[in-house]
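Most newcomers find our protein records easier to grasp once they have seen one. Sequence and backbone structure share a record, each on its own labelled line. To make this concrete, we reproduce a full record directly below:
***
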Amino acid sequence: MRVRSNVTQPPGTRPHILDLEQLRFALNSVVDLAAARFGTTIDVDQVLEYNDYYWQLPTDIAYAMHADPGLYVNVGQISDDLEELAEMLDEPDEQVLWHSLEHLTGLLRLLAFLENPRPGRERPPGQVSPLPDITDPKPAHNPHVP
């Protein structure tokens, strides 16, 4: 199913409009691709043995082209993102949009990291493949997913 915008535009151009329904569809499609690739659960503990931390640029700095981003680099943490995900599911009405998006972005970037091994990327000691096998043959029960 393709979601289309009702906006008429000249052929070959795209409007500068963010349609949240299209974004929702695209995100669901990406999560479906990740589930097909990794299974419906990922043993993140194996990834955490590799590294629980990642570089993060604050959103306001990411859009400030006049600033030197190197001065503002932060560290994100996968385990913290997972804790925040659990809180989002437990208390959906208590979310702060920007904060939730920051943590979800960290988890989406984790999926990109797992899927996109690059030549020369540091590997855990003794590993030939880019990362340990993160698929879990026995998915854990998630109380938030029917």
Observations:
- The two ends are 23 Å apart (CA to CA).
- The first helix runs from residue 20 to 38.
- The longest strand covers residues 53-56.
